[in-house]
Recover the amino acids of this structure.
């Protein structure tokens, strides 16, 4: 087994010679990849320790469609963890799957309508279902079949409520367990991409709701991921003090930790690059840039994270839209990305004009 350092990316990256795996587990003593390609043996494919707590391995025996997990040996014992970057899972408490990144977009080059002309229909995939079988949720396929109906309503954009893999089969989606994996009960990644492609062919934009103010809290393999924590809280992906508290549980991501910032940033980029979504709607941003949802206690690293994401969306995907659900009437939410302030930095917002490239690098803390 030879590590292929020239293959970038987190999680499982398939290539002609196998699959490269990479995971962040700074407090693990040893990490192995276990899966259907090695009989789930922890001895067959150990990972190599790299800088800053990253582990990697290149496995020739692994391929697209294989199931896998990471086996972490820690001071507290062994943990079997689903890949935080898994693009596909068998379920919220199942295994990760080596995902096939290929999809035929048929030249999809959709352009969003001017933002002041958008007529947005908010849609929950699971309940957008008029089938006689009420025992199962709606799917991307059933929504796709009714795109003509939505178009007749006069809308030109669909805002999809969160579709990251969640606990159970029925949810509004605001309890994400695996933010890189599309909910299996809705049809998974391929069905999601097919829906977006077909929506674009009908002249409909797709805006996706994402949840970064908390994760889980159910079926959350990120919780104490590599065994480390403080104050019996969430470990490396979360705040481990009172900043962990949210109305949905003590699972606020640590916006000041570079690897966590990158994790959330990479998720936004995935939706825009790999899924061709036309915009991102951020859930309850006032619980990202403040501790308790009021302006009494700011989270500066939350502000800077949102500014970094927003500036990079503007630079890499001009014309896409970013929307903040926020209830503080804070004028900094909709300032241009190049605006700065010593106390708070511009965050994402409902931008009323095309964004300009940022004036500098706002990725501090990565």
């Amino acid at each position: 087994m030879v590590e292929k350092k020239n293959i970038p990316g987190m999680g499982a990256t398939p290539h002609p010679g196998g699959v490269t795996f990479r995971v962040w587990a700074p407090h693990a003593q040893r990490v192995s990849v276990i899966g259907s390609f090695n009989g789930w043996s922890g001895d067959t494919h150990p990972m190599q320790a790299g800088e800053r707590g990253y582990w990697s391995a290149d496995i020739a025996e692994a391929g697209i469609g294989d199931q896998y997990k990471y086996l972490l040996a820690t001071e507290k014992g062994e943990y079997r963890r689903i890949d935080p970057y898994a693009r596909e899972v068998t379920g919220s408490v199942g295994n990760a799957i080596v995902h096939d990144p290929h999809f035929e977009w048929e030249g999809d080059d959709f352009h969003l309508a001017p933002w002041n002309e958008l007529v947005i229909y908010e849609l929950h995939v699971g309940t957008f279902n008029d089938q006689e079988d009420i025992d199962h949720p709606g799917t991307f396929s059933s929504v796709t079949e009714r795109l003509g109906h939505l178009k007749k309503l006069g809308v030109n954009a669909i805002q999809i409520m969160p579709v990251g893999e969640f606990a159970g089969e029925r949810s509004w989606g605001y309890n994400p367990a695996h933010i890189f994996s599309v909910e299996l009960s809705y049809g998974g990644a391929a069905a999601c991409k097919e829906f977006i492609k077909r929506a674009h062919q009908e002249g409909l934009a797709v805006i996706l709701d994402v949840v970064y103010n908390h994760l889980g809290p159910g079926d959350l393999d990120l919780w104490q991921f590599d065994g480390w924590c403080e104050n019996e809280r969430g470990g490396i992906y979360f705040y481990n003090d009172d900043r962990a508290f949210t109305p949905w549980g003590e699972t606020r991501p640590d916006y000041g930790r570079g690897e966590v910032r990158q994790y959330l940033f990479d998720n936004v980029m995935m939706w825009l690059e790999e899924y061709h979504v036309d915009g991102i709607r951020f859930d309850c941003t006032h619980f990202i840039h403040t501790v308790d949802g009021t302006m009494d206690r700011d989270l500066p690293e939350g502000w800077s994270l949102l500014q970094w994401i927003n500036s990079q969306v503007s630079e890499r995907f001009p014309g896409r839209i970013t929307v903040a659900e926020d209830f503080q009437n804070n004028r900094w939410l909709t300032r241009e990305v190049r605006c700065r302030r010593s106390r708070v930095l511009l965050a994402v917002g409902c931008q009323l004009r095309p964004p300009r490239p940022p004036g500098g690098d706002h990725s501090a803390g990565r």
Residues 338 and 358 are 5 Å apart (CA to CA). The chain has two domains: 11-97, 115-334.
